[in-house]
Amino acid sequence: MCGIVGYIGKNQALPILLDGLKRLEYRGYDSAGVAVKTADGVFSAKAIGKIVELEKKIGEIKSPFPCPLVPRSGRRAPLLKRANTGIAHTRWATHGAPTEANAHPQTDCQGKIWLAHNGIIENYQELKTRLAAKGHKFISETDTEVIAHLLEDLYDGNLTATLIKVLKILKGTYGLAVLHRDEPNKLLAAKRGSPLVIGLADGEFIIASDAAAIIRHTKQVIYLNDGEIAEISDRDFKIFDADNNQVDKNVDQIEWDQAAAEKGGWPHFMLKEIFEQPESIANSLRGRFMAEAGRVKLGGLEGVAERIRQTNKIIIVGCGTARLAGLVGEYMMEEYAGVPTEVDYAHEFRYRKAVLDEQTALIAISQSGETADTLAAVQEAKEKGCLTLGVVNVVGSSIARETDAGVYSHSGPEIAVASTKAFTSQIAILVLFTVMFGRQRQMSLATGQRIINELIALPDKIRQVLALNDEIKRVAEKYYKFKNFAFLGRKYNHPIAFEGAIKLKEISYVHAEGFASGEMKHGPIALIDENFPSLVIAPLDSVYEKNYSSLQEIKARGGKVIAITTAGNGKIKAAADEVIYIPKTLEMLTPILVTVPLQLFAYQMAILNGRDVDKPRNLAKSVTVE
Ligand code: G6P
After folding, report:
1. Contact 207, 222 (CB under 8 A)
2. CA–CA separation, 79 vs 614, rounded Å?
3. Whose CA is nearest to atom 4 of ligand 1?
4. What is the CA(440)–ligand 1 centre distance, in A?
5. ω before 105 within 30° of 0 (cis)?
């Protein structure tokens, strides 16, 4: 996600802020900015792209102050010496494309209050409308800018007290760093749902969304809890809870080195991203429910709601893992919305002669939004008059821009080549599409409500599955020397069998194939012997008995079986060699829960085989050529 750095102390803020931003580069971002307080006001610069662009920009800006802020050829500007408070940000676009106007820090009408924000403000639209009616001028498309204007609107001469009031009005998540031009020696930090750490060094404090930006200066840190606000001066700090009561905090000692800190202490980005899924799914869904009405609110589709109503056929396209999410979508759309749906590889779709017309909607799924084949499929469908919709993670990417409308998956930057959290978010977004299409057609209020309630419960259930990591590691230890694996699933989990297989082969280079369970007896079962284990996905759903039969057929041929089933299914233990349990959920949502142990299995297998998990050979994160 985005990165925040803030500084207050005895040294010049700007170089420390820029260095901090560089330490957060690994997180992925598409624009950056800083704001530092000087004797004459606030100096701010922003740039699209990398931190070096921001540095160039700072060098180029004609300083509004009597002497240049950035010292050239070693000359230290006296003014800069006094610029010892500042905030900085790397932005990974969520609301509005990566532009300078949308980059942080954001400010109010008068350029007095400056802030950097991570997270999503759900009620920003209504706040923006209200503030605009009072005369506030907005220059960005961000949700963040409303916080600055709201602070301006309620400002009573004390930024801390005003921030406490403002935070009560905001819905959603935030990590915040805030300063006021006219309040000397004060830097504020606040947290709800988005990490924020305060580093305590000698005569200086560095706040950051991530310890990686702090570790060079100090290993003594305070982790803010949700609802807490820190008021920091160059000598001291105070922490308040949401009701303005001062709280005592423990100082923690960071044990990691720089490299480990970038991964938040995780050994690999892939493992970190697997474990981020409770949050990434929550972010994908945040603010998108109308729970009582059993409906969803997808702002990005509002402009084409009428065309969606007219749609009588859906084609979902994508490549790799993204296409597999589409296959889950096909089962959901047909079962719950009654709209005929087909799924194609984007690279096949662009060359075949699909039957398309204006009542066809093409849904393009892509994490990066830059996959060349998927983009070409969108262009082809547009040419034929179809409605084109995107399920894209990267805001402002080519596919996001090319489609008529779409929904961002908000899973945060994914750095490991193997897609994990982006995939589960794509499925979650397709559930939202299904509810939207479904409620316009055959889906009852009760069904809409049931799906939404189950979605709300998903992040906790994912946490329960993640707790099985050690157990899955033990299974991998038994199996990591095998050279071939079959993954079997049926109906909603048929695509997940393919996803389990692709994850295993791409990061561990162990041969694995996904099969529809029912297809085994038509050929693949000939492969099975004691050296060819199978992962059988068999949750307690409408096809459980069928899957159970496939499992027994494999056992009858001497094959080893690792089964994934629903908690409470003790019976399967007698038949399978290993059993992994997932919590109970709606059948249509089991793919999300089943995917998690398969990701962990692939990860553990790759580690045991000594592979470069985050950067597997021959693969690229984003394939921008045909
Ligand atoms: C590459 C990646 C895959 C990804 C696919 C589609 O092959 O290695 O992990 O699923 O591209 O990428 P997209 O960005 O369009 O989702």
Report:
1. no
2. 44
3. 320
4. 31
5. yes
- Model confidence over 495-513: pLDDT tens digits? 999 999 999 999 999 999 9
Question: Do 269-463 and 469-608 come out as alike in CATH topology?
Answer: yes
The closest residue, in CA terms, to atom 3 on ligand 1 is 320
pTM of the model: 0.80
CA of 319 to the centre of ligand 1 (A): 6
Mutational test site, ligand 1, from 371, 397, 399, 421, max ligand atoms within 8 Å of CB: 371
| 109 carries an active-site annotation | no
For 365, the enclosing helix (H) or strand (E) is strand 360-366
pLDDT of residue 602: 98
Q: Confirm or reject: Cβ of 320 under 6 Å from ligand 1.
A: yes
Ligand 1 midpoint to CA 322 (Å): 7
Residue 455: name the closest of 597, 276, 284 by CA: 284
346 CB under 6 A from ligand 1? Answer: no
CATH topology assigned to domain 469-608? Rossmann fold (3.40.50)
Task: Please state the three-class secondary structure of 396-463 as a single string.
Answer: CCHHHHHCCEEEECCCCCCCCCCCCHHHHHHHHHHHHHHHHHHHHCCCCHHHHHHHHHHHHHHHHHHH
CA-closest candidate to residue 561, choices 578, 584, 539: 578
- Per-residue pLDDT, 81: 53
65 pLDDT band (50/70/90 cuts)?
A: very low
pLDDT at 68 over 80: no
CA of 38 to the centre of ligand 1 (A): 45
For range 591-619, the mean pLDDT: 95
CATH number for 3-254 (one of 1.10.3210.10, 3.40.190.290, 3.50.50.60, 3.60.20.10): it is: 3.60.20.10
Question: Is 2 among the catalytic positions?
Answer: yes
Which of the 8 DSSP states describes residue 86? Answer: E
Q: Is the CB of 400 under 6 A from ligand 1?
A: no
| Superfamily for domain range 269-463 | Glucose-6-phosphate isomerase like protein; domain 1 (3.40.50.10490)
What is the token pair recorded at 458?
């998903």
Domain borders along the chain are: 3-254, 269-463, 469-608
